[in-house]
Amino acid sequence: MRILLVNPNISDSVSDLIRDEARRSASPGTEIEVKTAPFGVAYIETRFEALVGAYAAAQVAAENVQRFDAVVVAAFGDPGLTGLRELLPVPVTGMTEAALASAHLLGHRISIIAISQRIQAWYREVVDSYGFGSRLASIRALDRPISAIGGVQQEHAQALKALAERAVDEDGAEVIILAGAPLAGLARSLQGQLPVPVVDGVSSAVRHAETLVSLKPGRAQRGSFARPPAKPHRGLPDAIARLLDSPR
Amino acid sequence: MRILLVNPNISDSVSDLIRDEARRSASPGTEIEVKTAPFGVAYIETRFEALVGAYAAAQVAAENVQRFDAVVVAAFGDPGLTGLRELLPVPVTGMTEAALASAHLLGHRISIIAISQRIQAWYREVVDSYGFGSRLASIRALDRPISAIGGVQQEHAQALKALAERAVDEDGAEVIILAGAPLAGLARSLQGQLPVPVVDGVSSAVRHAETLVSLKPGRAQRGSFARPPAKPHRGLPDAIARLLDSPR
Amino acid sequence: MRILLVNPNISDSVSDLIRDEARRSASPGTEIEVKTAPFGVAYIETRFEALVGAYAAAQVAAENVQRFDAVVVAAFGDPGLTGLRELLPVPVTGMTEAALASAHLLGHRISIIAISQRIQAWYREVVDSYGFGSRLASIRALDRPISAIGGVQQEHAQALKALAERAVDEDGAEVIILAGAPLAGLARSLQGQLPVPVVDGVSSAVRHAETLVSLKPGRAQRGSFARPPAKPHRGLPDAIARLLDSPR
Amino acid sequence: MRILLVNPNISDSVSDLIRDEARRSASPGTEIEVKTAPFGVAYIETRFEALVGAYAAAQVAAENVQRFDAVVVAAFGDPGLTGLRELLPVPVTGMTEAALASAHLLGHRISIIAISQRIQAWYREVVDSYGFGSRLASIRALDRPISAIGGVQQEHAQALKALAERAVDEDGAEVIILAGAPLAGLARSLQGQLPVPVVDGVSSAVRHAETLVSLKPGRAQRGSFARPPAKPHRGLPDAIARLLDSPR
Amino acid sequence: MRILLVNPNISDSVSDLIRDEARRSASPGTEIEVKTAPFGVAYIETRFEALVGAYAAAQVAAENVQRFDAVVVAAFGDPGLTGLRELLPVPVTGMTEAALASAHLLGHRISIIAISQRIQAWYREVVDSYGFGSRLASIRALDRPISAIGGVQQEHAQALKALAERAVDEDGAEVIILAGAPLAGLARSLQGQLPVPVVDGVSSAVRHAETLVSLKPGRAQRGSFARPPAKPHRGLPDAIARLLDSPR
Amino acid sequence: MRILLVNPNISDSVSDLIRDEARRSASPGTEIEVKTAPFGVAYIETRFEALVGAYAAAQVAAENVQRFDAVVVAAFGDPGLTGLRELLPVPVTGMTEAALASAHLLGHRISIIAISQRIQAWYREVVDSYGFGSRLASIRALDRPISAIGGVQQEHAQALKALAERAVDEDGAEVIILAGAPLAGLARSLQGQLPVPVVDGVSSAVRHAETLVSLKPGRAQRGSFARPPAKPHRGLPDAIARLLDSPR
């Protein structure tokens, strides 16, 4: 089985973290590839940056999907995910969606630990859009500047752990999600150090993608996740145009 | 006052409808300009098409915003709206958001009349994302093929009116929104023919944009609608890059 | 265009503040008149006082509506608004409803700054009744005695501004509403001094009323905002009785 | 124990129905008195009529409360109830609120059977305002003209029963509320004829009022149901003024 | 009238408290009996303990129901309540459900005061399951060890009172529920000492059970609270088997 | 890896279906064992039957858990699941919870196809308890008698498929869950025959259990899913008592 993870941002250092955790968590026999967006920003904290990342992820996914059994949108917040689910002929998972699916199986009230204050509003809207708002105990975030996005988890490991503990004690969190591709792998490093189960987006997205490939639930032929209807278009990247025009 | 309306789709015929209704509804002294997306699809019905339209709208808006006092995203579903609100230095309104604001002042339960079955799921998600889910009486939609997007309102006027009447009688609608830029102006043509107030997205978006320009509520300097934080980026259109990098 | 603002309370000093801000914010050509309730309390903080204000507003509005194109219920909390929307032959807006409509176009999460602790529960119920509960970041209120209702905004300007800043920093507010007719005009005085957009109820209600008059969405002939059905009544003020009995 | 039921409408025939059912359902030793509003409409179907009924009920209750241990607002929809709870020194219940309290103890999903189509929107808003929206399976209503309000339950008994049966079969109702003072006593007449438990507003309101008097939960001295704060007022009926001004 | 209260726990000291408060609050002529679970834990704080208590309560209720007109599940959290409502031929009430019904008639926002930190999550889920989540101002709980479950209210009376006061001042509580059978009777002892109405679960459950017996709303013959359909079973306690198999 | 599936019902024929589908869907190297409840009913349709099944599942799980890496509660509706998550030292998944987790990754609006009318209310409450109510497009169910519970899927395959198609066309379902252990494996048989993705509870529960075992998120030491606090108990089955008393 071959899984493509698309980093919707331009940070190669984060793509490395994603690749490492994806390979550690994949089942035997699963091949992992990570692609970095050719345009965009260093990391997404806002709605506008998510809009850019969504379009970049769509291009990368469309160009490469033929060689893969599943695609993962590898940024927390899942930019472009629901659109790609319509477009691509294989299962697509996202880090937020997958982390929520895992967390949902471990406890009822979920807290998200994030890397910046600014990122919280966007995360909250994404969680709400999945209907998980009532499960959210809190979002807690670092309030200090990030010197290098690929090094956040080393630099701030203790602060992140402290945020998780406060989420349990003060917000009633029953599960913790360590959010954001820059934190990929941190849940593994903290194993046994937090008082409630801890979920990582990359490993969840990879494992759930494997499960969907394996269970073959079938593709939407009708309803709102079927392919977009054929219609005139102009100026789209070739790979996207081909997917839109391919015979149904 | 100068207002830019951005059609996130490639259909010039729809841009014409938008321009006509915008000019009819603007206050004396307001100048209206409409720009059509240089790339994308003929009209948006799905999440993926909205993702494309959002990026196209962002480019067009960024390239032209300097000459305007306000920007309108002129597609129902508001692709890119909340992202543009972060990025642009002027007020931004969208057709869905504005139509809901008007409808909210006319009745409690709101029905949306749409041009295709497929479009309904996306509309519902957008309405929910604004927190207006509990106000939605129903979405009712045409179930016949659209021969030319610019001619939908002429071709199907009676069917659209019948859908509105059923929304009142069967769904308890207290206000009707005629949704989609291709229906721009239809509310005006149907004046007096429907049993409850009828709202049009383009005229609402223009008038509310005027109100925001006039009342000068101020721009977000903090919080999640402030400009995206400065950070590395790559490969973005010049106009967008300039807005991201401009001094704060 | 002529707009009547009804102050459902007996405070002439507040009516003066309402009149001043309404005139400052109205479009050229709009005439503004403000009427003060002949009976009731100095300002509304509770459900019971709102019940009294609603009946007083209904009387004033019914007696004067013939000379106006629109009516504004000029107390935050909108006492009587939805009832008057059924009864009156012209558009009716309220300060809360209109401020929410404006705020909705400026950000997602909204905080309300209020003049007394007691008033908060009632405001929350009104916001919830409009389906805006999920958009409410917080209500924050002064916790000191009010010496003269017409002078609240001068006396407590700094405290009110500080409450707004805390709403942004601690509650995630993306827009601020300065609530209550006694604060009419304060948003204008604070222009540029708050870190997020600020909305005023009176100016919003006036501008949205103008928009409704201008767009002519039509009146409800069916549904729950049509006129109350003809039926026996007794002892009602003449102006109300005439409206109930007028030919349909 | 003495309980006052206030009919916020002018229909003496409905007051008779209320009195009969209240006496049948009261505990031994409870004295029942019913007062009819001196002004208002024959029966309430709309928000405006509720606004009038609320003010009328407040006057009647204020004038008579000294002789009673509890007050019941005896119209479904509970006009004025939450306001009166602030004002009056004794427990107050309303027909809707009390019927929901009873129904809540008998099943999860509740359907309301109502006497007119028009009345449904108002009922729905009241149920929502109590936070019971998620418990509402449906509201079903007669769709035929009412010839005399005091005779609705005789005239339409079979149609009302049929509506209840459809609510069980089609809407998943687990409990039925027969709504509206004009239906007072119908639940009793239909005993054993409906497939799920049936609740009546008048008997529920009386019994719950008795329970509150008996359990002595105490009166609100703080919070939003404490008495309205002392402040200037003008032109209010004497009985209301006295209650507002009485020493605290 | 005879009412059976089932303590789903093994603590005889708590059964004594339940019996005393039930007898104090019952109407003249009502006979009260309390049965203690033959197996289970000392008091329920968790979902697992509730699962055990539910089965124990079912056994006790099934064995004794023939001699009673109503049954009360006498633990806050109502273990087994909705299941017993299907099974038993008489009305069944629970302490949480009944306390919420009473509180609902006294104010809008309700706070629950509980005996342990751990118990809060379970209480919250039960309140949510009744659709009362939007009415919940807060749950506040003791954070100290319980030395003897039957003596909690004496030992911690001042701490419990302080929690209630904070719920009013900081959480906007308009009514307080003193939760848990071990607190049965405390509301009565604190009469007049708290600033808002206070509700007790045992007395509410008894009074509401009396009301249901008296009003005879009828038993569910259809819908989801009708008796479980006849089907094969094995190994069930005799009393339960008899109720499942009895002729319909 | 060894996974125990507990059938909370007494039907060996259903246990066979569960075992077959579990083995087909498990990863290489996963060993599957299924245990049938020693007491209870043939299949669960009601809250009372779920209460019995929960206690039976708890006993079976407690007696066997030492030999397994994860436990699956193998009845749709997940009787006892959240309680067992507190008690057991290994991950626990349930069919409903797991099917929702899978469906959540495939579409937004989910419909459940069920085997009996009666079962729907209980399913709805369980889905709501997980916070998935807003994701539920509909529950549709067979309305014919079940002759043998182990043969439902053969006997009614076409009717079940037709229900799924109606859920897509009329309710907007984007994913279908075939609910109930008696339907285990049906999704696999219908592969390619339904217009949207189809999810099966048993295979989802097994795969998600494997993922949790593999990712090692850690066990709750604090919060509401930690083990029940030590306290007196009496009369519990030995295996349960041992787990409650084991050193922490």
Automatic annotation (TrEMBL), chains A, B, C, D, E, F:
Protein name listed in UniProt: Aspartate/glutamate racemase family protein
Organism: Ramlibacter cellulosilyticus
PANTHER family reported in the protein's UniProt record: PROTEIN DCG1 (PTHR28047)
Domain of life per record: Bacteria
Pfam families: Asp_Glu_race
Example GO molecular function: amino-acid racemase activity
Homology family: Belongs to the HyuE racemase family.
